[in-house]
Amino acid sequence: MSWIIQRKRLRAVLAGDRCVTLATVYDPITARLADQLGFEAGLMGGSVASYAALGAPDLILLTLSELAEQVHRCARVCAVPLIIDGDHGYGNALNVMRTVQEMDYAGAAAIAIEDTLQPRPFGRSDETMLIPFDEAVAKVRAAVAARGDSDLLVLGRSHAANIAGVDEAVARFKAFEAAGVDAIFVPVAQERRVIEAVSAAVELPLLTPGLPVHLCDPAYLARHRVKAWASGHHTFSVALQALHDAMKAMKDGTISSQLPGQASKELLERSLGAADYERWTREFLGAA
Known about the structure:
By secondary structure, the chain is of the alpha/beta class. It has helices at 4-15, 28-36, 46-54, 64-75, 93-106, 133-147, 160-163, 166-179, 192-201, 218-223, 234-251, 265-272, 274-285; strands at 20-21, 23-24, 42-44, 82-85, 110-113, 153-157, 183-185, 206-208, 226-229. The protein has a 9-stranded parallel beta sheet with strand order 1-9-8-7-6-5-4-3-2, with helices on both faces.
C-alpha cells in the first residue's frame, strides 16, 4: 500500500496556519472513526498502544513488532495521517534506525523519537530521566538517516522542560532541528513560557500533546506555530468506563439487547467499513 496521501496531509497541516486537534487512535475502529469525523491527524501514544495490544501499563512492554502491527492495522483503514509515539526507539541509535524503517513500512505518517531513559533501569526510582545530550542528538540523527528518501516525517521529542528546565529543552530542540527533523514534539508542556521559548528558538512547526486545560487554546497555540495539539488520551478512558459499565450491568442481570447507549446499526456498519465489504462481496464472490 502507499501512504503518500496520509503523509501529504500531515505536511499540509504542518505548513498551515491553524492548530488542529489530534484524535487518539489505538485500533482500526478508532482510526475509522477519526477518519469519518474529519480529524486531520491522529496520535497513537505509546500508552494507548500498550493498553490496546497488551492490556498492560505504559512501561515499554510493547515490542517494536507489536507496535508496527498495530500501526499497520490502523493505517490501512483510514486516510487520517497517524503520528506514532516511538518512545525511545526501542534501544540505542541503531535500534532507532530499525524502528523508523518499520514505522515507514507499517504506514505511519510520522514518528516521534524521545530522549528519556527507557525502560526503567534496575535500582532507580520511578523518576523520569533524560539520556545525555549527545546521545539524544545521535538518536535523532540516526532516525533522519534511516528515513532516507522516504516521505515519512521524523519528529524530535524531548521531556527536558519538565526535567532539566526550559534552557535544556531549547538546546535539545535546536539540536534536533539542526539534525534534520520535520517538526518539534513538545510533550506535556505545563506553562506558556515553555511553548513560547521553544517557538522563539526554532523555526520548525510544533506539536504539543498532553496539554493541561489552561493551555488548550488553539488560537494561542497557532500564534506560536503549534500545528497540532491534544490534552490526552481520555477518549480511551471514556470507552473503557462505558465497556465496564455495560459488562457489569450484564453480570448483574441486564439483558445485553436492553443495555443503554448502544451504537446504531448505521454507526456500527460505518465503523466496520461494511459498505465496502458488501460491494466487494457482490463483485468478487458473485453474490446476488
